[in-house]
Amino acid sequence: MTASLPAEARECFSRFITTEYTTIDSRQQPITWPVTPYYVDGAPTIDVTTGLGYPKKADDAKLNPRVALLFSDPTGSGVGSPARVLVQGIAHVDEEDLEANRERYMRESSLKLPATKKMHPPKFMRGPLNWYYARIYIKVRPERVFIWADGDPEREPEVLDSHLEEVRSGHAEEPPEPHAPSAGGSTAWDPRMLELGSRHPMGVISWVGPDGFPIAVRVPISRDDEARLIWLEQSPAGLPLAEGRACLTAHAHAEDFTWQENFQVRGDLVERDGRWALVPHRMVGGFELPKGIGRMRSFTSRHWRFYRTAKQRLAGRG
């Protein structure tokens, strides 16, 4: 249950508009995307959701239920506390009753994001957009919670877990999980990476910890165009950084969530002369809603690809 967690942590769960949700795919690659959390005070789980037409966030959690939720961006939440929270937990994927999930999503999203209500098409037009409105929920039961009361990742967080010393040392008494080697390969330098360190001075870096749970933290970043590296300008205290596959996610959204932008860079986390950096191998664009009239065009441009995915998934359900 979450009722015993500090109030500042529960306030983040219930009021933040986005949480950075991290899964681990079949290649041991951590993948982090911003999603909207849904939480009732004292509930056993913190829930996030994805559309039937883009189910990878759920499929990866089915394959490996060890996930993480980082509450590090309070934009639009009204939360005055500087506290930032990382939750490592076990995910349960709920797609048994898609109609009930759809109704829940419409109800909860309208309450949490009231300005987005006018962005939804009329009910009779939502059928062809089933790939978006048929929802899959991922329910995360916290196993370990890190709390930075002052929001500073260079200070050791309060850790609520029975294996506290193992977390701090990075050495678990239980056998460690296999750690995937670095991905390697050519270095990618997509034009959009030029936003890192400028438009996006902060980024969320995620990697896999020694116990197999993903770890994520928001840190200031800078870009080295000549060396083609993305530097982490802070080393998070109390979290065992490790060379290997990692993901750097940049995102921003309006106070009322009427626009959003996000992308991620997947690569290898490396230590160079006492500093940590990401060697980028792939840039991946996210589900974005631009400002103004381009919003609907961006949404519908994905229609056929996501429509086919949803149709195949429904067929597989029989």
What is the secondary structure topology, with strand pairs?
Blueprint: H1 7-15, E1 19-24, E2 30-35, E3 46-51, H2 56-63, E4 66-71, E5 84-94, H3 98-112, H4 130-133, E6 135-148, E7 158-160, H5 164-169, E8 202-208, E9 214-224, E10 229-232, E11 244-253, E12 260-272, E13 275-285, H6 294-301, H7 303-316
Antiparallel strand pairs: 1-2, 1-4, 3-6, 4-5, 5-6, 6-7, 8-9, 8-11, 9-10, 10-13, 11-12, 12-13
Describe the protein.
There is one protein chain. The protein is α+β, with helices and mostly antiparallel strands. The protein is built from 7 helices and 13 strands. It has helices at 7-15, 56-63, 98-112, 130-133, 164-169, 294-301, 303-316, and strands at residues 19-24, 30-35, 46-51, 66-71, 84-94, 135-148, 158-160, 202-208, 214-224, 229-232, 244-253, 260-272, 275-285. Strands 1, 2, 3, 4, 5, 6 and 7 form a 7-stranded antiparallel β-sheet that branches. The protein has a 6-stranded antiparallel β-barrel with strand order 8-9-10-13-12-11. A hairpin with a 5-residue loop joins strand 1 (19-24) and strand 2 (30-35). Residues 163-172 have low confidence and may be disordered.
What does this entry show, briefly?
This protein has helices at 7-15, 56-63, 98-112, 130-133, 164-169, 294-301, 303-316; strands at 19-24, 30-35, 46-51, 66-71, 84-94, 135-148, 158-160, 202-208, 214-224, 229-232, 244-253, 260-272, 275-285. With 318 residues, it is α+β, with helices and mostly antiparallel strands.
Features:
single chain; 318 residues; 7 helices; 7-stranded antiparallel β-sheet; alpha+beta; globular; 6-stranded antiparallel barrel
